[in-house]
Amino acid sequence: MSGIKIKPQTLKGFRDFLPETAIVRNTIIGKIKTVFEKYGYDPIETPAVEYAETLLGKYGNEANKLLYLFKDKGERNVGLRFDQTVPLARVVTQYPDIPKPFKRYQIQPVWRAENPQSGRYREFMQCDIDIIGSISPLADAEIIACSLNVTKELGLKTEMWINDRTIFDNLGLKKEEIIILDKLDKLGKESVIQELVQNGRKNAEQIFQKLQNSEPTPKLTEIFASLESQGLNKDQDFLFTPFLARGLEYYTSTIFELKVSNNYLLSIAGGGRYDNLIGLFIGTDTPAVGIAFGFDRLIDVLTQKNPTLVKKSITKVLITIFSKDFLSNSLKISSNLRTSGINTEIYLDLTAKLDKQLKYADKKGIPYVVIIGPDEVAKGTVQLKNLQTKEQKEIPENVIPDLIRNL
Amino acid sequence: MSGIKIKPQTLKGFRDFLPETAIVRNTIIGKIKTVFEKYGYDPIETPAVEYAETLLGKYGNEANKLLYLFKDKGERNVGLRFDQTVPLARVVTQYPDIPKPFKRYQIQPVWRAENPQSGRYREFMQCDIDIIGSISPLADAEIIACSLNVTKELGLKTEMWINDRTIFDNLGLKKEEIIILDKLDKLGKESVIQELVQNGRKNAEQIFQKLQNSEPTPKLTEIFASLESQGLNKDQDFLFTPFLARGLEYYTSTIFELKVSNNYLLSIAGGGRYDNLIGLFIGTDTPAVGIAFGFDRLIDVLTQKNPTLVKKSITKVLITIFSKDFLSNSLKISSNLRTSGINTEIYLDLTAKLDKQLKYADKKGIPYVVIIGPDEVAKGTVQLKNLQTKEQKEIPENVIPDLIRNL
Q1: Could you tell me where the beta strands, DSSP code E, fall in A262-328?
Q2: Residues B275, B348: one domain?
Q3: Domain encompassing residue B368
Q4: From start to end of B253-367, where are the E strands?
Q5: Is A73 in contact with B93 (Cβ distance < 8 A)?
Q6: What ipTM is given for this predicted complex?
Q7: Assessment of whether the complete model's pTM goes beyond 0.80
Q8: What CATH number does residue A386 fall under?
Q9: Which candidate in B10, B106, B131, B368 is best for mutational testing of the A interface (most A CBs within 10 A)?
Q10: Hey, is the C-beta of A74 within 8 angstroms of any chain B C-beta?
Q11: Are B294 and B325 part of one and the same domain?
């Protein structure tokens, strides 16, 4: 096979996750799943590849350029999933017997041919929960409460900004005007009013005031009451934010965005009610509400806040090998530690000097090393070395599992 | 959005995993990961999309028809990952600073444009462990021991069939002859010898006997000794099987296949040593050994053996709603149960009769239901109903979390 030599390279806009990034991602996904499941959401998975028709139905030709479309071997027009909402809409239509309301979570990658120069990735993970088949404001409230609980479990203080799009409708606002108003926290009041005027709105100041003074809709009032029953506090855990608009056109009333407290420009999740989307498939509308966590941003915020989350290895201990004669001793200790549930690596090269083995553990980020040679075997002990403190002590072999487990 | 109506359909050869299949998959993946980590393997993830050049390097044009190739938006020739070994080879070459030996696990979907009529899927999960950068037979032994431990933890009796390809080389066997010999357990001795003769081998009977009487190579002897040191038994947990060949051309010496005991035609994992593959990228060869579990087959075997693994929902209890007046009571109990770590769903429709709520829990596979109405609220109790036994009893509200957790 020599002589072919391929240039090893990840495609621009795509990422490898080596242990240092993959471990923390796994940990966070595990915690998110636990909260989703506590709220009664069950997992589903859908294939990466869908009919192009399915993917294009929602976004139309505008999104065409962001979709990875290609031909299947049977020459069918297909593409990679762009989000998890369209596959969900397809699923609930394809399997009408699923009991409703259907509460599912889905944590899978999605693909978008974004401009990689902009720092966006072309493959990224989404974490979604949705409730299909309920018009009840309790459903909206539950999505919000569950999301707040996710960040609470992750040790991140957040608040949910909540609005109802029908407020815009009642004020007779146009689509482009709503998009301008949505920029309030980025641009400030003056610039927003100026843009509204430039866009042809004569009573911009008045409209701005009206929106600012608007009251939560009856539906929002019901959602807020339910959140308070669950121990969440208005203006602290959740806020009524009449300027919040969110881009996606398919939302029909409630919209919400989860903001990192004290950093309002940072949204880590967004969602709302989309009662018409499933109608694309089924012909008749089906109520739905849900939220999607932007997993990359969540990981960034959490690891910046708590750098100890990042680990180079999950392995807790390296068992060194003294020589071929003592290999079976090292193998037995490894087996015992694993039986005790401790992540244990045994050094694999019989000829390596101890120093090389210790350096390997250090470079790999394994915190403890067990050394076992002729003296230790004779006494039934091992040397346990802490690579961070460099401390080393001799311990009876049989207490090693309990000791390491408690370190 | 009305009037567009898209036909909701999964592409042939692709699958949706609804809760009933997704839950058991998640459970099994969790157990597999735990064992991989216990043996000191760290996770990595690679993107679904790779340069076509990378994917084609290993398999050449033969596999072209099974690859999903398409154009990236920058008009680069790309494709979907076909296995996890080629991305691993790319990764270890792209990041030369990864400490060696590099022990990683990877559990991600792969895509192959197989003929869906044959019952094969076009997207399926693989679970791989590999050790890169060690020529030691201890590495081969560890891959084997870890794999046997995976199935042990899953409650499945298996045995590892082991061979060394250099035995074929030493007998001067040709590639096509090896493929014929590999069919022994499917065809039987007579047919295999007949095929060898048809293929031009005059001393077929003699070659067959020679192979049957062949001894393990020194390398295999070392692997077997290491396995025995770890408490595994020859001819029980692992066997020397001189007829085992395995299809993939890139294996260089050790090859192995994990068979379900008492059902030798069923392989659930396969692997071996491939010391030349990484040379495709790096120019110089890098030793490597690993195994891939066929996740679909593993799930099939496990769920056939133990149907109780299959659950329609992870949710343990449904909290019903009596009326709007008692909603906050139901919400509070839900919060308490979740805080106690119990997966809890609250019924979301305020107007539904109790009977409808019970039917929903039953259809969804939720085992317990909590009923709370005016009488219970007055007494500080709830009704707990077991949907399987239909048994219902009144219990003080404050003992509910402990009670359900222990059910």
Answers
A1: 263-273, 288-294, 317-319
A2: no
A3: 317-405
A4: 254-260, 263-273, 288-294, 317-319, 344-346
A5: no
A6: 0.94
A7: yes
A8: 3.40.50.800
A9: B10
A10: yes
A11: no
